[in-house]
Amino acid sequence: MKTNTYKTIQENPIEEKKISENKWVKRLPKWKFLSNDFEDDNSQYVQKVIFITLVGILYISNSFQAEKSEIRINKLEKSVEKLRVEYSTLKYDFINESKRSQIEERVAPLGLVPPETAPIVITVPNLEDN
């Protein structure tokens, strides 16, 4: 009978990762900033630099958009203030022109004068109650 023996396994110092047969995955090692190989010390920072750059661009565009909005709001506030002043002026003029004394002055050249006695109020009993 044979005795049990251990098989010796040859260990590879660098194990290669299994890559699927996808054509895009095959091209990744050509682009150092997308590969996971750390052959070059600087290549590991390229992904982080690209990410920080994109975040910086978004931050800058957001601040420009905020400045544009602030300028637009300031312009609208000025125009609203002008319209408020115009509204107040027109309202005052309308109230002032609708006073009885002002109306009498305007119609006096036409020969219209206010009545000296108050009008008589005629009351009719409600016919539906009977």
Structural commentary:
The chain is mostly helical and 130 residues long. It has a domain at 23-107. The chain has three helices and no strands. It has helices at residues 23-27, 46-97, 100-107. It is elongated, with a radius of gyration of 45 Å. The chain starts with 22 loop residues before the first helix and ends in a 23-residue tail after the last helix. The model has no long low-confidence stretch (mean pLDDT 81). Residues 66-93 form a coiled coil. It comes from Flammeovirga pectinis. Keywords: Coiled coil. This is S-adenosyl-methyltransferase. It holds the Pfam family FtsL_2.
Structure class: mainly alpha
Strand proportion: under 5%
Shape type:
elongated
Order of helices and strands: HHH
| Global Rg | 45 Å
Helix content: 40-55%
Straight-line distance between termini: 133 Å
Unreliably modeled segments: none
The beta-strand count equals 0
The main β sheet shows up as: none
What is shown here, in short?
It is built from three helices and no strands.
Attribute tags:
single chain; 3 helices
What is the fold's blueprint, element by element?
Layout lengths: L22 H5 L18 H52 L2 H8 L23
